[in-house]
Amino acid sequence: MDFIDLKTQYSALRESINARIQRVLDHGQYVMGPEVKELEDRLAAWTGARHCIAVASGTEALLIALLALEVKQGDEVVTTPFTFAATAEMIALIGAKPVFVDVEEDTANIDVSRLEAAITPRTRAIMPVSLYGQPADMDEINAIAARHKLPVIEDAAQSFGATYKGRKSCNLSTIGCTSFFPSKPLGCYGDGGALFTSDDALAKAMREIRVHGQEGRYRHTRIGVGGRMDSIQCAVVLAKLDRFEWEVRQRAEIGAHYDALLAPSVKTLKVRPDRTSVYAQYTVRVAERARFEQELKARGIPSAVHYPLSLHQQPAYAAGYVGQSFPVSERLAREVISLPMHADLDEGAQQNIVGAVREVALPGGKRI
């Protein structure tokens, strides 16, 4: 059994993907070819944002967003410690300081009730993460940001396709950033990502930063990066978009089915009633994770841990957070484990997974 089954997805889209890639090979515009603009237009339409800028990765999207907002050395950006390293990594890379706010027990997203206390005169942005595919409390975050005149960057690397109060993730704040890494709900066959905004000035800045700060050919008006998304990767995402709405529905159904079947056996994370999740991961919590993981493996069920250490505990960051504790993040890091999740997960496979989880999680009828 595959943790994420990209082979079945490719089989369903083989003709479209192959034709799209062949078109790039035929015209030979491998960098900034017509597929880039076509993808940007379709993604902007999908989210409702005025602008989409395709970039080299989700990590690059975060970096470009911070550069466009002119976050610099000595500034602070408020974010969550329970996320992939890229969130804090890009803040630290430009010399700013990630200021962490603990997360909610039931969603693993940033705890808005703790957010305002973390804002200081050095704060230049707030960067919530839409973890596991579910947006954070974006209205409340935006309201706090507005009071302090701060921009909000949604790290939506895991949530493209999700909704919040009827609005699409990536179009919920000043800037939205997503990733098209192959394992994402909408993935390419390498690295790729995108930025979204309805601010014309920010869009112009981010487009220039993406190509080494060029306003025009060899006219560099700002410091930039080589952050373009390849035409072939754009072609892959364009082909996958034709099936994406169906995949989003499938993910929601599979996630809801997991919830119903697993709630008596393990702790499940919750999706708020005013939003949806695209379940980039389907993640549960268990007290004896190492044993649980090994016994699932023995039964042929793959799993993964997203994430085993909070960022303030990671060696690269720990020195800056001595004496600080984020107990919910730390507890989640000890307990979370993700089960197979993809749009092509059929009912029989899901029943096998659920049966194994129940068998492992309830030895003698007791939840671990």
Core attributes:
single chain, 368 residues, alpha/beta, Aspartate Aminotransferase, domain 2, Aspartate Aminotransferase, domain 1, 2 domains, four-stranded mixed sheet, three-stranded parallel sheet, 10 helices
For the residues shown, what is the average pLDDT? 96
- Report strand %: 5-15%
Q: How much is the radius of gyration in Å?
A: 21 Å
Overall 3D geometry? globular
Number of spatially distinct domains = 2
Q: What composes the largest sheet?
A: 4 strands, mixed
How far do the termini sit from each other? 24 Å
Q: Provide a count of the helices.
A: 10
* The CATH H-level homologous superfamily of the largest domain: Type I PLP-dependent aspartate aminotransferase-like (Major domain)
How would you concisely characterize the structure shown here?
With 368 residues, the chain is α/β, with parallel strands linked by helices. It contains ten helices and 14 strands.
Architecture overview:
The mean pLDDT is 96. The chain starts with 5 loop residues before the first helix and ends in a 7-residue tail after the last helix. By secondary structure, the protein is of the alpha/beta class. The protein has a four-stranded mixed sheet with strand order 1-9-8-5. It has helices at 6-27, 34-47, 58-68, 86-93, 138-147, 200-210, 231-262, 289-298, 327-335, 347-361, and strands spanning 51-55, 76-79, 97-100, 123-127, 153-155, 163-164, 167-168, 175-179, 193-197, 214-216, 219-220, 267-268, 282-285, 336-339. Helix 3 (58-68) runs parallel beside helix 4 (86-93) and helix 7 (231-262) packs across helix 10. The longest helix is centred in the C-terminal third of the chain and has 32 residues, at 231-262. It folds into two domains: 6-100 and 109-237, Type I PLP-dependent aspartate aminotransferase-like (Major domain) (Aspartate Aminotransferase, domain 2), CATH 3.40.640.10; 243-365, Aspartate Aminotransferase, domain 1 (Alpha-Beta Complex), CATH 3.90.1150. 47% of the residues are buried.
